Amino acid sequence: MAGDNVTHVTDSDFDQEVIKSDLPTLVDFWAPWCGPCKAIGPVIDELADTYSGKIKITKMNVDENPETPGKFGIRAIPTLIFFKNGEVADQVTGAVGKTQLVAMLDK
Amino acid sequence: MSSFQLIIIGGGPAGLTAGLYASRARLNVTLLEKGAPGGQVLNTDWIDNYPGFTDGLSGFDLAEKMAAHAARFGLETKLGEVTSMDLAGPIKKIFLEGGEELTTQAVIIATGARPNIVGIPGEKELTGKGVSYCATCDAPFYRDQEIAVIGGGDTAIQEAIHLTKFASKVSVIHRRDELRATKILQEKAFANSKIEFIWNSVAIEVVGTNEVEGLKLENKNGEKTTLAVQGVFVLIGTRPNNEMLPADQLDMKDGFIKTDQQMRSSLPGVMAAGDICSKTVRQVINAAGEGAVACLSVEEYLADLPLAE
């Protein structure tokens, strides 16, 4: 099912789920009021299915979790940050297409 | 390879309306959308001028209602990003990300547009770090801060008003000494004590290293000043989503598709609707209207096709 492979992360489990993750991890910082966030939602769900077991795909609601976005200087959503070994490997802001996201994950 | 009578590319108001009409006409149709349906409507805080919705409604709600309305008549929507197309012959080919190919007798291009950039130093580097193109998305990050809005049209003024719900001060930078925005929006903006207008000025640089610290302006006398702001919202019109279009096959103007009054492009069987069209008025209402017209033109085109052997 669409979205079943997406992990929802919070301020309290971000360290465990993302920074200390064994797999490279994509975090989609979103909020319920944000149109482009909604627009890319289905793409994120699809990526989670495609990369299942290889790359961990996560979402963080910035409305409920202000601490982590603050730490990464996020002032626009959607922002997608790709973490490898706990470090920021790549970052993109805005409703980008699947092609661009795939290119980021495959790099 | 899947084959259709009609493929609609783009799920904003134009594409969804075309889809609604096509489903009611019982065409073998599919609508391709690279994300969730809605298009730029999803970026709009409040729609107050769509007839029938007497109290106005959010862009989210309107997008959802339009998608649900088309779905009620059985419109099939497919998640997919179009990478290229070949529209010249009687059978049109649509190529999707991932290598899938679809064929169809007719196409409605409703790929829409996205926000324009100013193209000044610092803008690209600080995008997402204080430079924003979507006020409804990012306004809550600017609580009690001072920000600048670049633009003077409907979108700029409507979103400047929205931003005052969060920011302590909003400076609207406009290159002329009067606004293009509709009068009722102007009245609201002029009456809002948090909005200040800086006339006859253009932004020349976004200042800051890891975050926006200011916006450098130049007025028509050539005087330069720096406005101390933490955010810069760029709302200066749109540019076409045309990267996947065959520019060598279609008659275009400034990157937008030229159409006649029946929304027909220069190619037989290829219609266009909404913000991808070369036109002067870009409202939800005429995008929807164009979607309807484009679909009726498709029906006429299909009816006139010689029978397949």
From TrEMBL, chain A:
Per UniProt, which keywords does this protein have?
A: Disulfide bond, Electron transport, Redox-active center, Transport
Q: Gene3D superfamilies of this UniProt entry?
A: Glutaredoxin
| Catalytic residues identified in the record | 34 (nucleophile), 37 (nucleophile)
Query: Where does the record place the site Contributes to redox potential value?
Result: 35-36
Site Deprotonates C-terminal active site Cys: list residues. Answer: 28
Taxonomic superkingdom: Bacteria
UniProt-listed InterPro entries: Thioredoxin, Thioredoxin-like_sf, Thioredoxin_CS, Thioredoxin_domain
Q: Name one GO cellular component term.
A: cytosol
**Which segments constitute the Thioredoxin domain?**
1-107
Task: Tell me which Gene Ontology terms the entry assigns under biological process.
Answer: cell redox homeostasis
Disulphide bond pairs: 34-37
Instruction: Output the Gene Ontology terms for molecular function.
Output: protein-disulfide reductase activity
**Similarity annotation:** Belongs to the thioredoxin family.
What's the protein name? Thioredoxin
Gene expressing this chain = trxA
Automatic annotation (TrEMBL), chain B:
As for family, the record states: Belongs to the class-II pyridine nucleotide-disulfide oxidoreductase family.
What does the record note on quaternary structure? Homodimer.
Q: Which GO terms describe its molecular function?
A: thioredoxin-disulfide reductase (NADPH) activity
**Cellular component annotations (GO), alphabetically ordered:** cytoplasm
Q: Which GO terms describe its biological process?
A: removal of superoxide radicals
- A Pfam family (short name) is Pyr_redox_2
Q: Which SUPFAM superfamilies match?
A: FAD/NAD(P)-binding domain
Q: Which UniProt keywords apply?
A: Disulfide bond, FAD, Flavoprotein, NADP, Oxidoreductase, Redox-active center
> What's this protein's name?
Thioredoxin reductase
